[in-house]
Amino acid sequence: MNQNAFIGHSGEIEVARYLQKQGYAVKAINHRCRGGEIDVIVENESVRAFVEVKTRSQLYFDITEVVTPAKQRKIIVASYHYNAHAGWPEDKSIRFDVAIVHSGPLGMEVSYYPHAFTPNAEWFS
Questions:
Q1: What are phi and psi for residue 116, nearest 5 degrees?
Q2: Does residue 93 contact residue 58 with C-beta atoms inside 8 Å?
Q3: Torsion, Cα of 85, 78, 51, 6 (10° steps)
Q4: Could you tell me the pTM of the whole model?
Q5: Which residues pair with 43 in a beta bridge?
Q6: Does the chain have fewer CB atoms within 10 Å around its N or its C terminus?
Q7: How far apart are CA 13 and CA 19, in angstroms?
Q8: How far apart are CA 25 and CA 114, in angstroms?
């Protein structure tokens, strides 16, 4: 595993721990399918969240540049794949979140953005 992949995976693990402390159960880390990848998938009693994780060493950047529309589409396609295999959660809502992990001299700090984006119906027509 190269340095960037190691840092990215460390960020995903940090977000999974962060979400567990918030009461979520971690269902998958690095779910991959032909159409895309989801970094972290978590659930609680009311929601299944698909989380894109970005690990950065700088604090200042525009979140809109972090998860582009093309990346959003890949995450959403992968979420459909996951739901098709794991079962659609009839009693839960589905959410797409972004977590930014700042890796600095004091360790890793998570900034979490629930409802960061939603599916665009025209992508699937």
A1: -70, -30
A2: no
A3: 100
A4: 0.88
A5: 25, 48
A6: C
A7: 10
A8: 16
Amino acid at 35: G
For the four alpha carbons of 69, 22, 26 and 94, in that order, the dihedral sign comes to negative
User: Which residue bears the tokens 């340095």?
Assistant: 3
**91-119 mean pLDDT:** 90
**Residue 15 and residue 40 in contact, taking contact as beta carbons nearer than 8 Å:** yes
pLDDT in tens, 17-28: 999 999 999 999
Q: Would you state the structure tokens that stand for residue 92, as one six-digit string? A: 């839960």
Find where tokens 């989801």 sit. 38
DSSP secondary structure code for residue 59 in this structure: S
Region at 107 (left for phi over 0; alpha for psi -120 to 50; beta for the rest): left
Q: Which domains does the chain have, with CATH numbers?
A: 3-124 (3.40.1350.10)
